[in-house]
Amino acid sequence: MDFRYLGNSGLKVSEISYGNWLTHGSQVENEQAKACVRAALDAGITTFDTADTYANTKAESVLGEALAGERRESLEIFTKVYWPTGPGGPNDTGLSRKHIHESINGSLQRLGTDYVDLYQAHRFDTETPLEETMEAFADVVRQGKALYIGVSEWTAEQLQEGHRLARELRIPFVSNQPQYSMLWRVIEAEVVPASEELGIGQVVFSPIAQGVLTGKYLPGQQPPEGSRATDANGSNFIKRFLTDDVLTRVQELKPLADQAGLSLSQLAIAWVLQNSNVSSAIIGASRPEQVTENVKAAGVTLDEGLLKGIDEVLGHIVEKDPAKTAQNAPQKRPNS
Description:
Layout: E1 3-5, E2 12-14, E3 16-19, H1 30-42, E4 47-49, H2 58-67, E5 76-81, H3 97-111, E6 116-121, H4 130-142, E7 146-151, H5 156-169, E8 173-176, H6 191-198, E9 201-204, H7 235-238, H8 244-251, H9 254-260, H10 264-273, E10 278-283, H11 288-294, H12 304-314, H13 323-328
Parallel strand pairs: 3-4, 3-10, 4-5, 5-6, 6-7, 7-8, 8-9, 9-10
Antiparallel strand pairs: 1-2
Helix pairs in contact: 1-2, 1-11, 2-3, 3-4, 4-5, 5-6
């Protein structure tokens, strides 16, 4: 496993990290989930990403149990706050001071740790003053409950304003967690240049586009039984990629993967890691062998000819519109 600095901080993270969105506490039985975490540890992964909202807090508990007994200092544990948790009361969501402080305490208890290495705003909260949010994050850092602060799916402008406040409060704002893959490149035009200027690193999710870039979804055919596309929770996130045009072009990437001596999923993960602003690529898994296979993308360098070939194959199906980042931000939340 290779390691990279998280933004311009001194924290090193494994360039492939393990995340449990849509798996632990929901799609995958606990023992199988723990086996996946063990496979990640055995492969040299030290960085683990979760969130309080995943499976309505259950995912954090499963991860905490899976990591119990490991040397805490040898791990980087990330979690997030924003989306609803609990019964969904009026203060069970958002980035208010109340929700942040209650959420970090709940996350630490479920994860079985005194602190997280990175605490992330899961989205930008349009209803809470940013000053209130950043001041609450500063309290969390000063209380020793988090070492660094990050965000997820913030626009370039939001990153700039959040970073300015973090500088004033003297807390380390070091990362952004966006969706990024060969098919979804909306961060490249604005978010990445702003992040490079601010010293913020990307911890990217869905590098294999929810499984589409594995090549298992075939044009003109029904999705394989038991795949994410057939799961009630996962299908909403993958359906935008399930067009015959996209799936045909993904199949056309196979000769390029073969040329590089990689599987399609390894090629996809290696591709996002060619971006120097990417600190880590998050992989998920429902089976331990998926982890073992995908970590082989670590340390791979793709030559310019191969990268150009990928662009030529994918052509117009690649989404690059930076406005799509803003569309990922939540709409105004109801008052009740």
